[in-house]
Amino acid sequence: MALRNIRINGDEILRKKSKEVTKIDDRIKTLLDDMVDTMYDADGVGLAAPQIGILKRLVVIDVGDDNVYKMINPKIIKTSGKQVDKEGCLSVPDIKGIVKRPKNVIVVYTDENGDEKTLDAEDSLARCVCHELDHLDGILFIDKMHKE
Question: Would the pTM of this model clear 0.90, i.e. be above it?
C-alpha cells in the first residue's frame, strides 16, 4: 500500500465532479487500500478520491464502529432527521465549523468485491457519509458551514 498526498483547499480538483467507476479491478482495489492507509496516516475518519487527486466516485470511512467502509459509486437514497455539530476536513486543515446534516441516511454502494450494499447510517456515520459524498460533487464542508 502507498500513502497518497492529500489535496488542500484551493486545489481546483476538489471543486470538480467525480466520475462513476465502471470496472472494479485490481487498480481500484489498490486505490481503496491506499485511501484507507492515507486516511489513517492523517488521523481522519473519511477520505474521498478527489482528496487525493482522483476524480472517481470512491469513498472510505472508519468512524470507529469496527467497520471500514470502502464505497464505490455511493448514493444517498434517503435522509431523515437533523443534527448540528462541528466538522473538520483533511483538505481544509486548521478550520472547524458547525454544519447541519441529516441524522440518518440510507446509502447504496458497491463494495470492492462488486457486491451491492445498503447502509443505514446514523449520527457520526451519517455525518461522515454526507461529508465524503459531498466531496464527490466538488462540495466542501466550508460551503455548508454555519456562518456566524
Answer: yes
Show the domains of the chain with their CATH numbers: 12-144 (3.90.45.10)
Length of the chain: 148
Q: How far apart are CA 105 and CA 80, in angstroms?
A: 7
Q: Report the 10 Å Cβ neighbour count for 34.
A: 19
Which pLDDT band holds residue 12 (cuts at 50, 70, 90)?
A: very high
What is Dmax (Cα atoms) for the chain? 46
- As a whole number of angstroms, the distance between CA 146 and CA 143 comes to 9
Phi/psi zone of residue 129: left (φ > 0), alpha (ψ -120 to 50 degrees), beta? alpha
Catalytic residue IDs: 132
| Span 36-45, pLDDT tens digits | 999 999 999 9
If DSSP codes are grouped into helix, strand and coil, which group holds residue 23?
coil
